[in-house]
Known about the structure:
By secondary structure, the protein is α/β, with parallel strands linked by helices. Among the domains are: 1-64, no CATH class; 119-141 and 155-264, Ribonuclease H-like superfamily/Ribonuclease H (Nucleotidyltransferase, domain 5), CATH 3.30.420. The protein contains ten helices and eight strands. The chain has helices at residues 2-26, 76-85, 89-96, 100-111, 156-161, 186-196, 209-217, 241-254, 265-278, 284-291, and strands at residues 38-44, 47-52, 58-60, 125-134, 163-171, 176-180, 202-205, 222-224. Strands 6-5-4-7-8 form a five-stranded mixed beta sheet, with helices on both faces. The longest helix is centred in the N-terminal third of the chain and has 25 residues, at 2-26.
Amino acid sequence: MQVKRLLDETKSAQDACSWINQRAQEVLACPHCMAAHVQRWGKESHLQRYRCCACHKTFNALTGSPLAGLKRRDAWAQYAQALIEGVSVRAAARRAGIHRTTAFRWRHQLLQCPAQERDTELHNLVEADETYFLQSFKGQRHLPRPARHRGGCATKRGLSAEQIPVLVVEDREGHHFDTVLPKVDQSTISCQLLQLLAPESLLCTDGAAVYRTTARAYALPHQRINLSAGEHVRQGVFHIQHVNAYDSRLKNWMQRFHGVATRYLPNYLGWRRLLERFNGSLTSEIVFRHATG
């Protein structure tokens, strides 16, 4: 039994190294000077090393990535599968045979690069809406406000003052962008939308005044859906049902974590985008390929 376990761990470690080496060959360049002329320079722990012909520094596929120095390669595959399934930190730690603090650290190391992977241009009919998450200082020892006792309830005014806005923008071709906003006002919204919208795009939003004033100020083609009046679809084509559906899936998926620390919210948004992009076909190999950038 022990021999079988050791063989499984060895195979898992070799598989993980194989994924990383294959990824390196696809985007091979020196992480120190970005030169493309490199040569093989032996192996270390099954990872191929390279030497840059320009700056003469050596590196491997993980150098400069969030995964540099990550140990226990025999547990990578199991942990990546736990990440795909969205299990808790403790459950992922038990499955991979690592400590819970290691599992927590691995989670956010693996999510650093996916958190930055977003579509940068949206075309044709583009839907935009914002959703909100309650501000959380989970994991912090020193809070900037008095602690709340479990079971107590904050006032409605207090909750609204502590909601963190997330802008969600999506076109009908499936291109997607979301980001945490410092606040919801014209300058913030316009800064995001002007970078995203292609020249031929038409913006569809709800009746929030911030989108109307932004569209008017920058002469953006805009269709406003008056949800408060019971309007959901205009002319059979203009609606915001795609972003609303995404907001619903995101909120339902986030409930399993029982509150996410606000400082880690961008990582969880990237995690959800990765799951949505592969729509059930996400594998451990894909997780690590994206985690290396």
